[in-house]
Every structure is written in structure tokens, then in C-alpha cells.
Amino acid sequence: MDEKLITVTAPLLPDLEEFNMMLKEIWCSKWVTNNGSFHKQLEKELAEYLKVPYVSLFTNGTLPLLTALQALRVTGEVITTPYSFVATTHSIWWNGCKPVFVDIDPATGNIDPDAIEAAITNKTTAIMPVHVYGNPCDVKRIKEIADRYGLKVIYDAAHAFGVEVNGESVLNAGDMSTLSFHATKVYNTLEGGAMVMHDAETKKRIDYLKNFGFAGETSVVAPGINSKVDEVRAAYGILNLRQVDAAIEARHQVAIKYREALRPVEGITFMDDMPGVKHNYSYFPIFVDAEKYGMTRDELYEKMRSHNVLGRRYFYPLISTFSTYRGLPSAAQENLPNANKMADSVICLPMHHELSEPNINKVLSLIMK
Ligand SMILES: Cc1ncc(COP(=O)(O)O)c(C=O)c1O
């Protein structure tokens, strides 16, 4: 990789010697996958770290979304946000359901509860919100709406690793929450993911579903899929869990520096910490008001690129504009004014645990002109 390239993120990597020692254990045991001892250990340690009752590991953050919809037997229409990564909507589509897009709250980027209520029809069976950038959704209002209309709630919590509201994990909201442990995330297992659930019975069912539906050597109880995590990635995950707090704190320090420098810049806005929330600083989105700033979002994005600073326009284009979805009535631009505005103005700045002071200053100097 080009030494001078400043990337939007960098993977949190375990110490290679410690990893090697764990690899030796795997080699000796010859138990390399199918619920091995590191797999069991990581599920237990993650549940403790995340303050949730049960965790089931998955091979990425997309399969738990697909599996959650299967497990809850969701059919018909699912209300969701267009301001996310495509996997959110794809999981609804792959389950043969119809995604119904509703607008977002511009303060957080998350689905707007009022818009959810307005979109409910007699075909609606579930809501799939996303805690975008790790900002917690209004889980209380969403629960009230879901309870009133008898809807399931599956949170795509891919960005919300370790996020808490008033000391409680945001992953405990809804029927189930899903996480991504992709290399670009705050906590990663190279590729990986997980589902969080409330009770042992559901965990057992999900564990069957991610193992082809096997409930025993000769018994298949459901049309399952393969999303089993191997021992190598489980070991990597155990080591990364030990250093994730330090990585989040390093990201926090980057956010403090960005905010301090960018607050006075006319035409650039960003999100501050929310009261009572323990954030994970997974992303640092800025929003460009072209008129006030004197340059469009794309001009600034290209200027950064030309200086080897690789911001990313998460989440542009909106999912609702992709060819599979743009014909849906709910994908109409008039239905999604806040989401369109955010998608057209956002740049996520480089944000990771080892972003150096000179690199932070280089990013800032490009934005401050
Ligand atoms: C909001 C969101 N949902 C789902 C996913 C899918 O996760 P994965 O890439 O681990 O399959 C991602 C990230 O990649 C994401 O950002």
C-alpha cells in the first residue's frame, strides 16, 4: 500500500505472536471448525463484553440479517431505511419480502419513528432499523409502535458494537440485533458477524439455522444455511476483544480533534455525542453545505483524493436508488427528502485507532482550506 495514503479505516490486528500461539493450539487439537472451544469462548466473552444475554457468531454481518428474518418467519412488507449499506435491504429481498423505505431523522441519520408509523399497512410484519454510524435509534418509540401493531423488530446493529444508552447495551433492543465484524469495523474478525438474542431457546434455534438446520447428527429441523465460524477467526476475535477498548478510546481522541478544528468551519457540520450514550466512534461523517462552504461535497471529496486522503461517501448513493429497488413506490425521492439530502452531502473522514497526529492534521488542513 502507498505509504502516504490516508485510508478511511485500518483493521485492528491482534499481536502476531499471540495469534501464532493460538494457531498452534488449533493445529494440535485438529478441531478447526463446528463449534470448537475458541468459538464457544468468544461467544461467551462477547456476551459479557457487550452486556447481552446470548450471542451467536456468524461468518459475516449479512447472514445474521437473513437468518433473523427467517427465524421470525417474516413475510409481506418490512419497513426499513434507505440510508444504510445495501446488505440491509438485500436481506429483506432475499427473504421474498418487500422493503418499504421511510425517511430518516437528519439529527442522527436513523429511521424516523413517525415515518414508520405512517408507512404501516395490513401487509407490514416487521421493522428493520439501522443504528447508523453507531448512533442509537429511538428504540423506545420503535418498540411502542411495534407493540401497538404487532410487528417484529430486527436491528441491523452492524455499526453499534459496544454502544450503550444510559449504561444499557443498545443491542438488547428489538427481537434480535445483528453485528458485522468485517475488517473495516471497530471490532473485527477479518470477516465475521453475530446475532444477539434474548433467550436460550432462540439461541439454540439460531445455532441450528446457521448449521444447515442440524439439531443432531441425523436430524434437520429447518431449512438452514451455513454460517459457522472457524477456530482461526474465533481465536483472532478473542485477541481483538482484549484491545478493542483501547482502539475505541484512540478513535474518541481523533473525534475530539476533528470536532474542535471543524466547529468554526462555515458550511461543514458533523454529529456530536448524544447525551447518555457510550459511542464507539466507528465513523466520522461530515456534511457539506455547498453554498455556505463554497465547494460541493464531490469537489471536496475529489480534492481529498487528489491529496491521497481517502474519505468515503457512506451512504451514497441511497439504497433506494439502486436498480433493484428504485421502482418501488417508497423509493420515490419525495418520500425520502432527509435521506437524499444526507446522502448528497456526506463524507466520512478517515477514522481509526492508529490515525497519527500529522495525518489528522493533513485531513483537517484540506477541509479548512
Ligand atoms: C449497516 C450494515 N449492515 C450490514 C453490513 C454487512 O456486513 P458484512 O459486510 O459483514 O456482511 C454492513 C457492513 O458491511 C453494514 O454497514
Walkthrough of the structure:
The chain has helices at residues 16-29, 37-50, 63-71, 87-94, 113-119, 139-149, 200-209, 231-262, 290-293, 297-306, 337-345, 357-367, and strands spanning 54-58, 77-80, 98-101, 124-128, 152-156, 164-165, 168-169, 176-180, 193-197, 268-270, 277-278, 284-288, 346-349. The chain has 369 residues and is of the alpha/beta class. The protein has a 7-stranded mixed β-sheet with strand order 1-9-8-5-4-2-3, with helices on both faces. A 3-stranded antiparallel β-sheet has the order 7-6-11, with no helix packed on it. Helix 1 runs antiparallel to helix 8 and helix 3 crosses helix 4. It is globular and about 65 Å long. It starts with 15 loop residues before the first helix and ends with a helix. Bound molecules: pyridoxal-5'-phosphate.
Q: What is the end-to-end distance? A: 27 Å
Strand portion: 5-15%
Give the low-pLDDT segments.
none
Total count of strands:
13
* Biggest sheet character: 7 strands, mixed
Computed structural class: alpha/beta
Mean pLDDT: 97
Rough outline:
globular
Main features:
369 residues, binds pyridoxal-5'-phosphate, single chain, alpha/beta
Question: Could you give a quick summary of the protein structure above?
Answer:
The protein has helices at 16-29, 37-50, 63-71, 87-94, 113-119, 139-149, 200-209, 231-262, 290-293, 297-306, 337-345, 357-367, and strands at 54-58, 77-80, 98-101, 124-128, 152-156, 164-165, 168-169, 176-180, 193-197, 268-270, 277-278, 284-288, 346-349. The protein is of the alpha/beta class.
